[in-house]
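Backbone-to-sequence.
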């Protein structure tokens, strides 16, 4: 089967199963928990079906597995025993009696489409045995991914412990990495996918794989990440002050105001 078609079938089936689970437990947050696992599944099948096993494939599989397991574990622990995420709860109320069809198409299938585009580096690396003479890009891409993994993992951990302390309720997190960026976890996420893109360049189809980091960076900055979360804090004086002092995305020293 064509590797792109195979990936599309896997993503469709996986997201459909997640949708069925979400219907059963009445919580579309399952999509967030399953997000990283879906990439691992695509990467594993793509590598198995390639008929080859080059170091570039092993490296990419390792990075995707590390990212996916950490992310799924973190979101599962964070959401355990809590109500449905505010985004999904809001949409559930807005969609009313059409919640099932909207959830399937606008949550699970839409995320599946995004997943498929982001999987382009994975598909290309595993379906292209030849490699351009650019092997030096592997450690560069791997190093960039490692920096991103550090930022996302540490930022998530810092935020988890901050929110877990009842004394911090109503306060704004502005310590640790959050002192230098309002969204250090999103910065790390984007950095990891740019690293994966760099690893895919020697496979010779960078014009396809570049859409993966471009898409996730756009979504994090303009759609479901920075924009959506900051809208939640509109009118909050403490956050407005934090916003004036702190870099939006790329970590930098706070402004002295």
């Amino acid at each position: 089967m064509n590797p792109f078609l195979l990936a599309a079938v896997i993503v469709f089936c996986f997201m459909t199963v997640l949708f069925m689970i979400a219907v059963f437990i009445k919580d579309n947050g399952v999509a967030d928990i399953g997000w990283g696992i879906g990439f691992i599944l695509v990467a594993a099948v793509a590598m198995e079906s390639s008929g080859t096993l080059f170091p570039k494939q092993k490296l990419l599989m390792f990075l995707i597995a590390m990212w996916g397991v950490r992310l799924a574990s973190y979101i599962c622990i964070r959401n355990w025993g809590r109500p449905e995420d505010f985004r999904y709860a809001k949409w559930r109320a807005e969609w009313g009696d059409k919640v099932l069809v909207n959830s399937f198409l606008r949550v699970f299938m839409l995320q599946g489409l995004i997943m498929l585009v982001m999987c382009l580096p994975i598909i290309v690396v595993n379906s292209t045995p030849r490699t351009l003479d650019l092997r030096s890009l592997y450690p560069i891409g791997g190093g960039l991914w490692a920096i991103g993994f550090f930022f996302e993992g540490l930022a998530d951990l810092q935020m988890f412990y901050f929110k877990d302390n009842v004394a911090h309720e109503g306060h704004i997190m502005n310590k640790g990495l959050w002192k230098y960026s309002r969204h250090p976890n999103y910065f790390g996420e984007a950095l990891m996918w740019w690293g994966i893109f760099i690893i895919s360049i020697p496979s010779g189809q960078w014009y396809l794989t570049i859409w993966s980091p471009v898409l996730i960076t756009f979504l994090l900055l303009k759609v479901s990440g920075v924009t959506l979360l900051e809208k939640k804090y509109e009118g909050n004086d403490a956050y407005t002050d934090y916003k004036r002092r702190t870099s939006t995305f790329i970590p930098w020293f706070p402004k002295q105001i």
